[in-house]
UniProtKB/TrEMBL annotation, chain A:
Every VWFA domain range: 28-216
Source organism (scientific name): Thiohalorhabdus methylotrophus
Protein name (database record): VWA domain-containing protein
Annotated signal sequence range: 1-17
Keywords, comma-separated and alphabetical: Signal
PROSITE patterns in UniProt: PROKAR_LIPOPROTEIN, VWFA
From TrEMBL, chain B:
The organism's place on the tree of life at top rank: Bacteria
UniProt keyword Transmembrane, yes or no: yes
Comp. bias regions, Polar residues: 479-491
Coiled coil residues, start to end: 191-225
Name used for this protein in its record: Uncharacterized protein
Taxonomic path: Bacteria, Pseudomonadati, Pseudomonadota, Gammaproteobacteria, Thiohalorhabdales
Region of interest (Disordered), ranges: 466-499
Transmembrane segments: 6-31, 244-265, 285-307, 328-348, 378-400, 412-431
Keywords recorded for this protein, A-Z: Coiled coil, Membrane, Transmembrane, Transmembrane helix
Amino acid sequence: MKRLVIFLTILAGLVLAGCPQQAPPNRGVYLLLDTSGTYTKELDKAQRIISFILARLNPGDSFAVARIDTGSFSEKDIIARTSFEDRPSVANQQKRRFRDKVGKFIDNVEPAKHTDISGGVLQATEWLNEVDPGQKVVLVFSDMKEDLPENYVRDVPFELSGVEVVALNVTKLRSDIVDPRKYLGRLEQWQKRVEQAGGQWRVINDLDHMTGLFSG
Amino acid sequence: MPLPNVFMIVPSAFLSVLIWLVLLSALLYAARVPIHRVILSASRGLHRALRLSAFSVQRAEDRIAERNRQVLLAQGREAAERQIEREFDRVDETVHRELAGYPDLHRRMSEEITAIEEEHKNSQDVPPTPPGWTEAVDAVARIPAKADPMVGNILEDIRKSLVKAHEKAITEYRRATGERHKLLERMRPHWRNLQQQVADVDRNINSLLERSQAIDRRMQEYEETVRGTERAVRMLSSSTLSQFFISLVVMLIAIGGATINFHLIARPMAEMVGGTSDIAGFRTADIAALVIIFVEVSMGLFLMESLRITRLFPVIGALSDRQRNRMVWVTFAILFALASVEAGLAYMREVLMQDQLATSALLRGDGSSEAVSSSFRWITTTAQMGLGFILPFALVFVAIPLETFVQSLRTVLGILAVGALRVLAFFLRLLSSGSRYIGNLLVDLYDLLIFAPLWIEARLSERGRSTQGAAEGAGSGTARATRSGTAGESQDSTEGEPA
């Protein structure tokens, strides 16, 4: 009997170690969409990215999509946001509703006059801190060129510890083509800013290879 | 002052080295005897300690081997008792079933025999014989009737009457014969019944004979096991090893089945207990699925135990038959309920999969694939539900290899332990011998380092002996013997002692 108990305990331990999966940390993803000027035409790509992200998010994860507008440090720029329910079937329904909501926005979007990336990042950080997921990701779908209206102050220091900032589809502007140093300098400047704030920085320009979008 | 200069006795490095070597040789030569003693004492001590350890390990190995033997014999005795008990049960069953009905069988056979006798008796009644005066009629018929027509007519009438009577008698004869045949025909089923009953008795008797032969064989094995003969131990050992490997293979197959079962229900479990919570770092849905499988396996163990197929839990085995029967039904009901739950979960899994596929297709902007696959979906769903329902019942039978595995594991572990101890004892003996030779080798190496003073000593002692021999000349044999004895002793004390 004693031997049987020991054997069953070992067996249970082996099966426990072999079959069940480690619970993955829940993820919080905040996608910033640049809707200024030429980027309005790129929004179909953004929709593909949103669908890709939705397909990969699990119950318990959180996702928000916001536009980068004149003053993006504002709740009104959030297009859709949700935390997926525990139950997979409900999470699927939420994903469909989310996609519909974003689709409606993209169909009726008006080009923004200015580009407030810093405000958007600040807003994203706040939201992610509120949701408090295990993994925090801020995706920026933009050319990363900031164009602020007058009197807007954005040289505030970020607090991005534990946050990964990923720049997606960073289009080269005409001036970049003339002088590539501007493009490289812009990316470098953002990288420095993010890393100084304690965050991690990545650039993904090839949208066909987004499989490594979420680490872990 | 640099370190090398410390060792410079004279300005010349070569001379310094030479002086150092001479000094060291002298020092080592002076310390030769105690150092030899130390080396040899240490090697002897190590040798004895290792030998003692090897002896202890050997004794432990013997004890474990003896214990293994006892366990093996006990297991073999128990198994033989179970088999003999089972054979006796079968014999008892046959005897009770067949011999309890023997009076009835005897009565039936007597009835059949009586019926046959009666029918036979009836069939012996002599049928009416045809008239015996046919020849007389023929004689009358042969009388020439041409002379007197009257006589001819009379004779013709007589002939006709006789023919008529003859035909009647023949008909009666045929009827009586047919009757006898019918009686004989009615005897046939009685014969067959009788034959069948005799064949049944024969079969039962043969079965009993076979059982008795099997019991004889088992008893022979049992006696050998009780006596603890080497043959019995050998047979039991090889049988246990083969049982261990067979049960291990079956257990691995069962674990494979349990894994499939797990994957079948883990996903839909997220719909019941949530997909995000975790227990000790593992997903709660996975843990819940595992718990269901373990409960099924446990119920299977209890069911097999209640049916007395396995004997893992003495408490269940000791229950009364009524309680055991109740337990059989309770465990079966729980298993059935769990199997139904699993079938439902398997169906839910398919629904969830389809939902997820539809969502993915929608997100990809592709809705065409759904229509193609929907016509075959019922096959997958049915197969999954069937698997979900059958696997819990299949897992019930894990109890049988599990029992064999648990019982044979003790023997296998014992054999492994004996093997490990044997290897350890061998290495300890090897080290023990090695330490002794290493001591001698170190002594020789030490002497090699101080070969120069030793060589001088040998030369001096040789010269001393030759000088002494020349001075004393032909001294008394007793004095020489005494000296040589002393020299021998002193030599023993320096060289012989450490050895």
